[in-house]
Design brief:
Chain lengths: ~170, ~100
């Protein structure tokens, strides 16, 4: 990627679940291009491994970049990929349509899932608004986390090649 | 069980009844009417929220043949239907065992 000419904020250490840990379970509305309903992560894992992508709110450029990359790399052809952000289901539907995303997105406006995963990112200059820091968890169907990446600065983007290797190793 | 009607079987909510699926739109009064009746009759259901724009509700059209909500799918009886008055009448006929105050 071209050199980025903006301020990067270092984020504090986090205590997020690591490789080998069990992925915390949660239930939130899961949005596809047409509808949404409450789904538990464990329900998805019953059907196979899951790549869980935490991203910034829909409309922010990191979300756009990340989903363009996921789409172009064709991850959704290989494995179940789901996103999670604080955006509402209506915003998720728009993002899915605009970006041609072939993944479903969890809606978590109160950021509780990020709290469960220890990856809360309080947004500077937006009082009362927190979202997950960018993160990717590759989770095996036994709920074990096989690969974890969590941003250490903001903005930051997933190590796509590493995620891809982890998907390949499932 | 052989002496009971199919409707009574469907109303047997001791754990053998599968959840209904309700296709709904947020803040749609006709959908809320169905929700109220489902709750009153203590019927387990899953909500699927759809697009406000009628023309974009293909998911509902695929299951019911129409783009209108509310629509329900009842796996216990194989019934799929639209229109809140019809749905409420169906729920009453299938699941109201006359003992809802209990």
């Amino acid at each position: 990627m071209a050199e980025l000419d903006f301020e990067v904020v270092e984020l504090d250490e986090t205590d997020h679940p690591a490789e080998g840990d069990e992925a915390p379970d949660f239930t939130r509305p899961l949005v596809d291009s047409e509808q949404w309903h409450d789904v538990a992560l464990s329900e998805l894992l019953d059907e196979g491994p899951v790549v869980l992508v935490f991203h910034s709110m829909d409309g922010a450029f990191p979300a756009t970049y990340a989903w363009n990359e996921v789409r172009d790399r064709g991850w959704t052809d290989e494995v179940t990929v789901v996103g999670c952000s604080i955006s509402t289901p209506y915003e998720h539907k728009r993002l899915i349509a605009e970006r041609g995303i072939d993944a479903r997105l969890f809606s978590d406006p109160q950021n509780g899932v990020a709290e469960q995963y220890g990856i809360v990112n309080d947004l500077d200059g937006m009082r009362g608004v927190a979202e997950p820091r960018p993160a990717v968890f590759v989770i095996g169907d036994d709920r074990t986390i096989e690969y974890a990446w969590v941003a250490s600065e903001w903005p930051d983007f997933p190590e796509y090649d590493d995620v891809e290797a982890a998907i390949g190793a499932l | 069980m052989s002496t009971e009607s199919p409707a009574t079987d469907a109303a047997d909510r001791t754990g053998t009844t599968e959840r209904l699926t309700l296709y709904r739109l947020q803040a749609c009064p006709f959908c809320e009417r169905v929700v109220r009746r489902l709750d009153e009759l203590d019927i387990a259901y899953e909500s699927r929220f759809v697009e406000p724009r009628h023309s974009d509700r293909d998911v509902v059209k695929r299951i019911s043949g129409k783009r209108t909500v509310p629509a329900i799918v009842d796996p216990n009886t194989g019934v799929t239907m639209s229109e809140s008055a019809n749905i409420v009448a169906y729920l009453d006929g299938t699941y109201d065992d006359g003992d809802e105050a209990a």
